Amino acid sequence: MTMRFDAGEIITAMITPMDENRKVDFKSLEKLVNHLIETGSDALLVAGTTGESPTLTHDEEVEIFNFVKKVANGRCKLIMGAGSNCTQTAVMATNNAKQCGADAILSVVPYYNKPSQKGLLEHFGTIADSTDLPILLYNIPGRTGITMKPETIAELANKHKNIFAVKQSLADMDVITETRRLCPDDFVIYSGDDSLTLPMVSVGAYGVISVASHIIGKQMKEMLYEFKHGHTKRATEIHLELYPLFKKIFMAPNPVPIKECLSKIGIVENYVRRPLVELDSDERKELYSVLEQYI
Questions:
Q1: Consecutive 10-residue averages of pLDDT for the chain (295 residues)
Q2: Res 249: pLDDT
Q3: Roughly what angle, to the nearest 10 degrees, separates helices 117-129 and 87-100?
Q4: How many secondary structure helices (H) and strands (E) does the chain include?
Q5: Do 58 and 92 touch, CB atoms closer than 8 A?
Q6: Residue ranges of the domains in the chain?
Q7: Theoretical Cys-Cys bridge with 33: which of 71, 84, 119, 173, CB 3.0 to 4.6 Å?
Q8: Known catalytic residue: 138?
Q9: Contacts of 88 (CB under 8 A, 6+ apart)
């Protein structure tokens, strides 16, 4: 498959480890980066929502990215979260990502101010015109309050060659199908939800921007391999095996459960920044009852 930019099949939306004072835990971050690369991540997304970007300062984002880049040392692609609901701020964040040496950026649909489809064309067009970095669009109606339509994605993809992909975080397979149908062949679609990876790939997506890959990256890689090599029955079996964990890691706001999972296997400490809160003992027990099948 010819692609405008190849970020690989599995991009892990990486958490940001915190210590007991809710400061960035760089020692655990080093351990996490190595763990993810060793368990199948083709690329790491730094300072996305799973990385608690709403509570990270811009200085922290740059510091985290530079540290991850040093640890990764060219072993995987690095994508930086650079979205905003202010076009000017998104352009500035994109320029910062370029200066940091990011391979690409993730740019989310503007949240809260709910622009029209024309506004989305203006927003992402302005960002694309400001940089030569590859841009991954992020369509997540549950967090932004609006849906970027397939026609809008296709118009952006046709007009701006550096817009190389879209992360689709919605369960409507008709939308995914229409996006694939309207967009150029070298434009990539990623599932934004672990449990929808196989269904989306079956209608034209390429891979997943994953939370579950923090724990089961190798199994997810195997699922994609089996499907793309024509072993659809085996791919479905793996999907069904992984499905309980796919759902359970979203039993509370992301990334609370996945941080608990990583704490359980000794990769990070289990702390999140407010307004997020850690799981209570009953919730932890419920999560562990599923997690123990996979570790």
A1: 94 98 98 98 97 95 97 98 97 97 98 97 98 98 96 98 98 97 98 98 98 98 98 98 98 98 97 98 98 95
A2: 98
A3: 30
A4: 12, 8
A5: no
A6: 10-229
A7: 71
A8: yes
A9: none
- Rounded distance between C-alpha atoms, residue 267 and residue 25, angstroms: 11
Exactly one of 77, 167, 221, 259 is catalytic; which is it? 167
Backbone angles phi, psi at 52, to 5 degrees: 60, 40
The DSSP-derived string for 185-221 is TT-EEEESSGGGHHHHHHTT--EEEESTHHHHHHHHH
Partner residues linked to 107 by β-bridges: 137
Residue whose tokens read 């015109």: 129
**pLDDT score for 1:** 74
Neighbouring residues of 293: CB distance < 8 A, sequence distance ≥ 6: 244, 245
Topology, domain 10-229: TIM Barrel (3.20.20)
- Catalytic-labelled residue, pool 138, 190, 206, 271: 138
pTM over 0.85: yes
